[in-house]
Amino acid sequence: MLDAAKVPRAHWRAMLANLEHEAPDMMRQRLEMVQRQVRENGVTYNVPADADGKQRPWDLNVLPLILPHEEWSGIEAAVIQRATLLNRILGDVYGKQEMLREGLLPPALVHGHAGFLRPCHGMRHHDDIALHFYAVDLARAPDGRWWVLADRTQAPSGAGYALENRSIITPTFPDLLRELKVQPLSGFFRTMRDSLEHWGRLCAAKGDAPAPLREGEMPLIVLLTPGPRTASYYEQAYLARYLGLPLVEGGDLTVRDGVVYLKTLAGLHRVHVIMRRVDDESCDPLELQSSMLGVAGLTQAARRGNVLVANSLGSSLLESGALLGFLPALSRRLLGEPLKMPSVATWWCGEPAALEAVVGNLDRLVIKPGFSQLPPFTVFGQDLAGAARTDFIAALRANPNNYVAQELVRLSQAPVWKAGPAPGLQARAIGLRVFACATPNGYAVMPGGLTRVATGPDARVLTMQMGGASKDTWVQARARVEVHSLQKRSITSADLVREDSNLSSRVAENLLWFGRHAERCDNIARLLRVALTFLFNVRFDQRGAEWPTVEALCIWFQLLDEERKPAAPASGQVQAQVQGQGGQAQTQSQAGTQPAAIFTDAEIESALLLAVVSPTVPGLARQQQQLHRIAGQLHERFSVDNWRALNRMVQPAAPPGERPSQSEVMTILDDAAAALMTLAGFALDGMTRDLGWRFMSIGRRLERLQFQSVVLQRALAMDENGNLDWLLELSDSIITYRARYRAQPEWLPVLDLLLRDETNPRSILFQIHGILGTLHKIAQTHGDCGEHLLAPLKQELIALEPGTDLNYGNAMLSGLLNRIQLASAALSEQISVQFFSYTDNGQQRSRTS
Prior knowledge:
Distance between the termini: 54 Å
Oligomer: single chain
Radius of gyration: 32 Å
Mean pLDDT: 85
Strand content: 5-15%
Region (Disordered): 568-594
Domain DUF403: 503-836
Largest sheet: 7 strands, antiparallel
Helix content: 40-55%
Shape: globular
Structural class: alpha+beta
Domain Circularly permuted ATP-grasp type: 64-454
Pfam family, one: CP_ATPgrasp_2
């Protein structure tokens, strides 16, 4: 921010003037806005080493890093040169290997590296591009000169976080962005996607299994992720959604006759480009390393030119720090020019002279592993003394090839805004990760990047795994910049799409279970609210005959459990005896008869309060976590607004270990019901009625059908004189009933409303009708999928005589509900087998173009 005379540099003056003349609370509001956006958008960076396995919120500092156009121009030119050089090296190492023969690369550095994948030797690369994405970690010395710390060539991460940073910071400083002429990032991603489409067309036309795309047909590009447990999964899902790409896991893809296909509900669709985030050795369990993350046969498909893998398999070889010391000579040999930006001074200890230099200057160096197959470590020479120093030098001499030494660089600092009792500017060391993508006409560089911030004033390592923060990176343009978008320049009638033909079986299954889990959250919240209202508002001796049924339902859905009783029964106990106990998947006929469960009011209240707030027991909090977990598998399918509603719902309502008050717990339940209604609104009004939506809708209706069947069976078995208000409240139908009848609930109208009323979205018939209608639409393209299981039961419901069949204690009616419950479970199983267990049956169709 400051020059040598400690005067603000020109490009920082507008920012400082803005901060100086605004109200003191404005920065606090900006900070709160950024933190709220990060939280509500669900931006996370997961650290596998975290013992609790929780997702770590992304740390974004409110102040950006500002780079003037003149300084950026030098960085951009150096990054383009470096990406070009590394692409040439990668092509040579896996091709003619001239650099090895000429001695410009030591053979031990290549053949001793686990990242050198021998099955990839001789692999075809369209337009001679093997390095499609490139990232480089830069640091600025206190004198202002930029240095390269490391190259990221395997599956560079961070570009999506940089894009998310910009989207969050933009509304924080909208005027400054315009005043400083900050370049947008969207054009880079448009270029990236256009380039991948270009190479996808080449794969379709020039591979050894040519199937040129039809006029107006787009190549299928997918983003291959290791799954939700990976550290940067949020970024991968965010990029997939922004670029409009299917986010797939290894199990979603298959290779047939050297061609990669996506397994969709419509059959096999050929994949032309795989933008991968899976490590090299895990990409193909057949030819590389055994792993569940990859696709068997992928290496062969890429070798034959039938699919573009970006980056090319084997590209992790270039990430070795040992390579840095050889790049100057390679640049002169391959490009005919010196490096525009030097790497930090690096020595590979595999060279005898370098080893001696390292031992002699250990105090000024940082020692790191030379190969990716070695355990990661960072040793600061200045920290070694006595026996530890002697032992380390002995280890260096014993296996010199395994070590790389780099000069300990003092990093330039930038201002960060720190909140707290004394908020203000503080200095922190920073590093900049810059991104480039290959195009048919050379490399293009993102006008910005991911600025990483050290954890403290004395931190010597920049790493997100250790809790580092980030900044938005502002690159100034010479003149006003155009705002780019990812929209295609022209769309013809051939480009019109009405259905997602690339919906994978895994995504469809997750959508179905998202619908089920969302409905389970709603069911449990409503049941807890009904039960706690009894406990809080009605004395034990004044409760009617309906209370044992409510308690029995709490036992059935595992909100009360004999094994979790906090104490032995005492005076004032209530006895509840039920036929079954278990989750929604159980049925009355399966459960059998359980011994009587006896609870006191105090025990019931304690257990139900715990079920509301604690994820360690069955209840609302646990179910909300399960909903959020399954939603995490569908991150790219939901809008930002949808995600905000999800993230608000799972925010802790009370500090861990603290028991909420009666008013607090009822507020939690009311808020949960409202949030779930919001999610349902997104599903009804914010999602297109495509195949994915249909599976989600079936999931919701199946869950509601099973829940209502259980509740009504229990209600029919309770005392005839019990009040039915609780049943209408639980079924969210109390307002409808009162508006229609203006009288106390009676069995005939209640059963008609909850069983046979097709206009009531909580009725049994409404669910069956909706399920059958959705199945009918799916069957038009996928064949029969279980309609016969529910259709006869629908007719039985319609045929019921209100005057004789809709009454208390009707065994025939209870039996019908039980058969509906069993049929819905059978339908769920059939859908899973037919759509989610992929096999080559006659209904699966294969497209090769």
